[in-house]
Amino acid sequence: MKKSEKLGPVFWVSTIVIFLLVVLGISFPAGFENVANHAFSFTTYAFGWFYLLSVFLFVGFCLFLAFTRFGRIKLGNDEDQPEYPFFTWIGMLFSCGFGVGLVFWGVAEPMSHFFTPPTGGLEEQSPAAARTAMQYSFFHWGISQWSVFTIVGLAIAYFQFRKKENGLISTTFNPLIGKGEKGYLRKPIDTLAVIATVMGVATSLGMGVLQINGGLHTVFSTPNNNMMQLGIIGVLLILYLTSSVTGLDRGIKYPE
User: For this UniProt entry, which segments traverse the membrane (predicted)?
Assistant: First the structure.
């Protein structure tokens, strides 16, 4: 293996952290859940204002790009043309980026808020609870969420296809931390990005597996247990690997 091909600290640190989290979750599920809930409660209480402000600025920035000359900058060379038709690209975005989350939470979230209002003073299953439930759902799955994905996607695409840099998250911070491997923040940024991505995918996949298992149990009376869920994960893994190794033009584009 060449020196340039050796696995670096980003891989090893993120792998070790993720492995430890998985082991802790399997060994101490109740304690792990309790710690995770406390961490979630703290971050939402202490940084909820920052999240809301950030999303508002993201939406504003996306609108700024859309209606100014900067929105006409191609994410590639000036002479490049789109590789896929518009509706094919939209379909690929939904199937690969929002499929499990949108299908599951598009129904589960408003119904959950309708039966258990997220704010105090609302009567369960009332018209006010229904309106609040839809407001929360639109916030989480509407323009606000799209703006967050758009900012990250635009930043990576701009540096990778316009500036011909690599596709790492840390590269998008070049104007702030400078170029080159000596940037002491570069590897921590990429490590956090890997951990956050894996945890996010694991959450979406887990919710999707529970949804599939629940649907099969309701319709076909199949077992609703861990073994069945492991089987579903195995099938999804095969489908994912098949889609990945065949590339965009076959495994991902064809179903659209």
Answer: 7-28, 48-67, 87-108, 138-159, 189-210, 230-248
